[in-house]
Write a structure and sequence with these properties.
Elements (H helix, E strand, L loop, with lengths): L2 H17 L5 H37 L1
Length: about 60
């Protein structure tokens, strides 16, 4: 995640902690970690697929 997006995410998360219906900050942080982890995994997968398509395109041009 780009640093500026991570900063924005953390800023929003801090405000969610204040208004959250969750029992504790730890519970909310755990949920945020799960969401962030999923986002990062999906992002890495997309980047890998884009790279694979670029290689495939380069090979097809030969």
């Amino acid at each position: 995640m780009a640093p500026e997006k991570l900063d924005r995410f953390n800023y929003i998360l801090e405000h969610l902690v204040e208004i959250s219906p969750y029992e504790s900050r730890d519970e909310l942080m755990s949920l945020a970690d799960q969401l962030t982890g999923s986002w990062l995994e999906n992002r890495a997968e997309v980047e890998w697929m884009q790279h694979a398509l670029e290689i495939k395109g380069a090979l097809e041009k030969r």
